[in-house]
Amino acid sequence: MISLQMSRKTSQIQSRKQLWRLFSTISLPSSQQAEPPSFGIAFDIDGVVLRGSTPIGGATKALRRLYDDYGVLKIPFIFLTNGGGVRESKRAAELSEFLGVKISPLQVVQGHSPFKQMVNRFENELIVAVGKGEPATVMSEYGFKNVISIDEYALCFDNIDPLAPYKKWSTMEAAVSSTKKSIINSARVQAAFVVSDSVDWSRDVQVLCDILRTGGLPGSEEGPQPPLFFAHDDLKYQGAFSSERFGMGAFRIALESIFNSIHTKALTYASVGKPNPVAFKNAEVVLKQLASSLHHDLTTVDHANSRSHDFQKLYMIGDNPLVDIKGARQAGHPWFPILTRTGVFKGDPHSNHAEFPANLVVDTVEDAVNFILRNELIKS
């Protein structure tokens, strides 16, 4: 288990700015609540509110019930997803478009979001970011100053990927300057971060093994393994295809199996996404900030964020028992796990998961929201 510092002054400032942008567009005194909400909601994305880019399970209708007639948020909710590879601001814009409601970047907590809490440790160190989308851009936005994507890193070493000549596609088309190659060829990688799903397993397993077994410099003698972090460890997830797809956990299994076959010491690593309690603690912090902003005037957000607001209940709505439900159960009070049948879990109407049963099993996310609002005596 890695130790993560959950709050820093810079992140608080950024959060307050995000809150201001979220509520400043439409902010009416009548929308402020007499008391802070006693509950909050965390939604998984894939298999719960979306399949690919298409809303499922009455998600659009369900989410609109969490806003007032003016489009102002009245119930604090976030998306707690192991997905990622893009900045939270970009993902928020996509979700707003797909779901038809205004989503703030603060409401998007991705698998790699906790990585920002490790900036103090690796801020100026050379690190490699792995995955689809914009992994290096994501890490740079978090504050890492010397980060390179594995796409670009592989281009700095001639012939490091023996299969490259046979690939008719490329994950990095731009050339790398000879100066940058020279710098990277002599610098040791201090940590590797798997930010999102690997696009080129064969290359990424090869290059990561080179980095991890040589103390951070491919082609050199064996050395101490640099730290390795995964955004999450999902074996499978529900995408647009009818059956589940392999996730980052599958890539981790492949990497670990190969590394342990060629190295005398077993691979060491840590993952920070669901079901890790770190992910749920981080989610609770964000939900508290949202709840405070709903109760207090925006000019007093500084004071609101410094106050402790205890939820009576936090609802986790997910489709994967081994990730969403297990994580909420391990996090304990005040988490209340709800399992939908629209994604990884497809049990019959009267079934629950045997090993990690949810507190409630429903057909769709709309059913889950209906239950929550009834349970909390909220009229909408």
Automatic annotation (TrEMBL):
It comes from Corchorus capsularis. Coiled coil: none annotated. One of its GO terms (cellular component) is mitochondrion. Keywords: Hydrolase. One of its GO terms (biological process) is glycerophospholipid biosynthetic process. The keyword Endoplasmic reticulum does not apply. Gene3D superfamilies: HAD superfamily/HAD-like (3.40.50.1000). InterPro entries: CDP-alcohol_PTase-I (IPR050324), HAD-like_sf (IPR036412), HAD-SF_hydro_IIA (IPR006357), HAD-SF_hydro_IIA_CECR5 (IPR006353), HAD_sf (IPR023214). GO terms for molecular function: hydrolase activity. This is HAD-superfamily hydrolase, subfamily IIA, CECR5.
